[in-house]
Amino acid sequence: MHVRSVDFLKSVYKLSQLPDADRPEVAFVGRSNVGKSSFINTLVGRKKMALVSKDPGRTQSINFYQVNDVIYFVDLPGYGYARVPVSVRKDWKGLIEGYLTERSTLKAVVVIFDIRRLPNEEDLLLLSWFESHHIPYIIVLSKADKLSSNKKREQISRIGQLLSVKTEDMIPFSSLTGEGKEATWERLDKFLYPAPLSA
Ligand SMILES: Nc1nc2c(ncn2[C@@H]2O[C@H](COP(=O)(O)OP(=O)(O)O)[C@@H](O)[C@H]2O)c(=O)[nH]1
Ligand SMILES: [Mg+2]
User: Phi and psi for 58 in degrees, rounded to 5?
Assistant: First the structure.
């Protein structure tokens, strides 16, 4: 995908504020600090498109961006904050789960894990939640430049085992080197523009 334009559209705090579901969209999710903003920025070739949130304890929004005016990129609030008050977490849950289950034009969710961390129970729950709701997802392993190639292979294999995902189905990514950018777009394009069933 050649990205010609990226424009911030709006921040959504309630389901009633969602923009019209009139084009294919991809959503991005990951823990705070996993490299989600850097990943999105690298993908679209912009330095500072995604908003960088300084305070994960505050209520966050779902942020919509238009890419080439034909698709939406949707930046979801992070998950997995032990310090967030229960009431705030409930609000997020309602907003994010409502969005993910009801959005007819959502083609795939990109789930970002730090390649150096082993996924925990919460990460596994997130993926099984996607499975049970038939929401397609892509796994990206961020900060791949931080590991040697041996260590990287080892880590990809361990993460794959834990998640029951084939190693080739996960994309090692680095916003520093650009590794994984093309592979991610190839995968996304298939979800955004599926081949017609009959020619
Ligand atoms: N070495 C390296 N650092 C990264 C990479 N991606 C993000 N970071 C760093 O990780 C920190 C968090 O990144 P950010 O994109 O703001 O994460 P977010 O909180 O998930 O949006 C920042 O200090 C980034 O510079 C990467 O691919 N390689
Ligand atoms: Mg961010």
Answer: -90, 160
List the residue whose alpha carbon is closest to atom 28 of ligand 1: 143
Domain-embedded: residue 164: yes
Nearest atom within ligand 1 for CA of residue 38: 15
Domain CATH for 172:
3.40.50.300
Flag whether 198 is in a domain.
Answer: no
Q: Which atom of ligand 1 is nearest to the CA of 32?
A: 19
- Ligand 1 atom, smallest distance to 34 CA: 20
pTM, two decimals, is 0.92
Q: Does some domain include residue 1?
A: no
Rounded Cα distance, 155 and 160, in Å: 8
Q: What's the gap in Å between 191 CA and the centre of ligand 2?
A: 24
Question: Which residues' Cβ are closer than 6 Å to ligand 1?
Answer: 30, 32-38, 52, 142-143, 145-146, 174-176
The residue to mutate among 36, 37, 38, having the most atoms of ligand 1 within 8 angstroms of its beta carbon, is 38
> Tens place of pLDDT for every residue, the chain, 199 residues?
789 999 999 999 999 999 999 999 999 999 988 999 999 999 999 877 655 445 554 557 899 999 998 999 999 987 765 556 666 677 778 899 999 999 999 999 999 999 999 999 989 999 999 999 999 999 999 999 999 999 999 999 999 999 999 999 999 999 999 999 999 999 999 999 888 776 5
